[in-house]
Amino acid sequence: MQSFSEIDTTSKRASKAAGFSWGVAEEIGKAIRSLELFGLPGIKNLNLYLNKIEKNHPEKVNKIDQENKNKELCPIYCGVAFLDQCQKLEILKNIKFYNVNYPILILPFISKASEILGKKILVQFNKSSLIMNFNKSILSKNLEKQVIDLVDEISIEFLENKNSFSDQEWKELYKLSEKTFVEETDSLKAKGAGAGLTDND
Amino acid sequence: MNKLNIKFRDPNEIMKLSRLGSFHQSKLSFLRSFIREFKDWDYKKNAFNLDERGYGTAIYSFSKNQRNYSLVCFAQHINPDERSDRVIATKWDAAFVLHDGIPTKEDIKRLKENVPKQEVGRVSCKELTLSRANKSVRAFDHVVDSLSMGKQPDKKLLNKVGYLYRTTAVYGSGKFGLADRFRIKDRKEIYGPFRLEMMLVYLVRQFTFDQVNHIAKSKNPDKAIELDSNIARNLGIGNSTGLGMAPFIVNHPTLLHNWIYCREKALKEIRSLEEVDINELNFFKECLIKSKVSINSWITDSRYQNSKINSLKNGLIKFDKFLKNECSIKQKYLWNKIYTWAENNLENECLEYIVSMMMEPYDDIIEPLINNMSSEEEEYFTIPTHKKVSDLKKILENNYKSIIKIDFNAKDNNFNFWFISKNKEEPRVASRYEEHGAELEQPLAIARDIKKLYEKIIKEQQTNTIAEFLLKNDEVRHVVRRAFIVDQFPYSEIQDNTIGASLVPIDMLRLKLSFFGAVKFDPRSDKWLRINMYQGAPLSHEMKTSNDTWVYNVVN
Prior knowledge:
The complex is a heterodimer. Chain A is of the alpha+beta class.
């Protein structure tokens, strides 16, 4: 089995060899390591994508808007630019990329952005939904294929921080937690810290 | 209260390679902190299955509470023409792996198939460090012959060599399938850097003594005697080190910072002491006297190193006079006086030696620093892209003052390139004007790339964000990241041109090796050197009662 350190180093070197700058290749190394740590097929997708662009390096991204279209978009350039600008992009609430190659490769960058912003981010493509959870995990639903070579559309939605439970559920749990408290009697109150003093001094 | 307001030394001076290449071992060194940390662990020789020629398998361990680390050793026959210290070698006299826990029979079988192959074998996340070593044939054979004849070996010869085996590589942290650091980093006993590498080398040293005794006994069972403990203690483990170490200190900037910062913090705190106790001063003097005996055993054919050793010896003569005539504990801030005198009167080699020696009396200052010498590097990886271009310009002007003045259009300033060799995946450096391959240059020309970044930055709209700047300039992204790191970690960057024609790569190795605690630097060219580790260190059964100044115990 390969170590995560080997995954990072080899992904970085391979990406440099495929035409990315050293700085971007460093990002890719960390991104693939992160995907593999989350149990997602990083090496598999990177390998296929680098093969695809061997003779025709993808165009860089000059700007990120609410809707981003090109003949085909590079998941890495999109991911790095998204990460770099995530604080500015947050106000757009929802961002769409069209015709994106190997969309799994964009996920670690969005996941890192989720950590920086302190917000969960919902990513959807084809029939899959993935929640970026502060870069602690990626929760996926219906991600059936290990490899998706091109998706028509990726939708990225910044989620407002909110509870995953109702007020009632919280109240019930809180009430139970109160059973660890001791009821204060008059006697205990009289002997407690600050007892006997006046605060009107 | 620091009444003198002693400041940290300026990174622009300390991080020059000529200064870093003059560093010496100290109380902060990893060999010494390893022994301090593990001295109360239980050492055991668990297995020793060698044939009469000393070939086979041996296992040693350190254990405490429920934790166990096992060194598994594989010794084999190799022909003299197969023995090479160079990284291109494919066979070694012995190969070693540090296993996490007690290895099962299946583990040993798996390791036996892979560990002797080193880089072309595979180990697992149950293994922590990997190494190999070759005999110093003249020392090893002499010791075997002497012991088998019932005599102790010639101390003069052994003192000249200093070890029975030389390691030629020690790998850790995820290499060749070894455990990633994150799996084990929360273990308190390995908070200090390179602890497990240091453990491996320490146990390898014990193996070399056991092996030599075993072969002598097998050769002449009636007459053979064991190697005298005093002689064994005076033997370390040699190491041949090439350029593999050089990129490490460039590629791990926050780690480098933490090492240097702890050294500088220790110095600052010691210089700030108002009163010096007589015992502290005497301890310093005692270490100095003992250490001077060791310096006389530093033998090298390298003109470069001999000039450094001479500079050190001459400096120490001047220093002795100063210490004798002008220093007394009645003086306030004595250490600051000593340091200031040394800075004004000594060359780097001796100045940094005195700095190391000044730490000796102060366990209370040094010990808390040891656990700050590792780094969680990933925490500093993300570029703060919301910052402005003007912020970056300021960082470059403050932290790379001399770098941004270098003219990289001059041939000598852009002379070398660093690359990874295809056959052994090892770093190398070569002239870009004489060798092919410069188009595959590694991102280690930091000074040149910082200058390139600076030239772009000064032309850029200063109110733009770094994110906007990077959209158009991703070829300098790697140095943008570094610049923001150096802003937080001022000792993280070598303040020199690592591709200049006058580069002495072994200065980069010396820096790292001094933090390991190596002594006897013996450069064999400007690109590789031999060193000695653990010479004078307590033997395995003596660890529990050892003191920390063993490094000065070397006898002639």
